[in-house]
Design goal:
Elements (H helix, E strand, L loop, with lengths): L8 E7 L15 E2 L2 E2 H11 L5 E6 L4 H9 L6 E6 L4 H12 L4 E6 L7 H14 L1 E7 L4 E4 L5 E5 L5 E10 H10 L7 H7 L5 E4 L10 H15 L1
Helix pairs in contact: 5-6
Length: 230
């Protein structure tokens, strides 16, 4: 029995990016171990017993192809599709509205195909503490703050720096409230919650849970996928 078994949990997969650094290829359709990245992303959410329904957010250009791909899978779990907005946060909000009211919502990047059921479940467990939890890894490199002219100002304390990933998990009402109250451009949904006074819990992510941005990333993801499944 999972911690979230008595609660309704939805997921929003944000795949509305433009893949500008992929050499003209839409990364969500690029093959990863014989299947499009989008299906690899969706697999753990389909298989995760805590997830009740899913919304995939696409852009206007890839909507028809993406919807056709999803419908063809004939999954028993409900998977809806909608078109996103100009900014990532606009796309997430449209996904939330399509998803409808639930207890918790898991937000995940459509370019992170190596997410696991374990990461999803850990996020749901961590979100019980504060209403919001995000996957993250401790920074291992020295990080410099610099001017736009690339002259360094100082080094940031590494022991308090974290590299943020998705999944990011929220109480649905908490996230909706943050979207209603905050108007700033933000880097992720956790920042919206922070801006409106919410507390966000970090939980340990995975080094394999990489985000595909370039063709080189695809090659690395293929290698990691094979190792993960070995």
């Amino acid at each position: 029995m999972t911690d979230s078994e008595q609660e309704e949990v939805g997921a929003v997969i944000v795949a509305a990016g433009r893949s500008k650094r992929m050499g003209g290829v839409d990364k969500i359709f690029a093959p990863l171990a014989g299947q499009p990245v989008l299906l690899r992303v969706l697999e753990p959410f389909i298989e995760c017993p805590s997830i009740d329904r899913i919304v995939v957010v696409l852009n206007g250009r890839n909507y028809d192809e993406g919807k056709e791909l999803i419908v063809a899978q004939n999954w028993e779990k409900e998977v809806a599709v909608c078109i996103g907005g100009r900014r990532r946060q606009d796309s997430v909000l449209k996904g939330l509205k399509q998803l409808g009211v639930c207890d918790y919502v898991v937000i995940h990047d459509g370019a992170r195909p190596l997410v696991t059921i374990d990461l999803i479940e850990k996020g749901l467990k961590a979100a019980k503490e504060t209403g919001a939890a995000i996957a993250a890894l401790p920074a291992t490199d020295t990080i410099k703050l610099a001017h736009k002219d690339m002259i360094t100002l100082w080094s940031l304390p590494r022991d308090s720096l974290w590299l943020v990933q998705t999944p990011q998990v929220f109480q649905y009402e908490l996230l909706i409230k943050a979207y209603q109250e905050a108007t700033e451009d933000v880097a992720d949904d956790a920042q919206l919650v922070e801006l409106t006074g919410g507390r966000v819990k970090l939980y340990i992510g995975s080094y394999d849970n990489m985000k595909i941005t370039t063709p080189t990333d695809m090659a690395i993801a293929e290698m990691l996928w094979k190792r993960q499944k070995a």
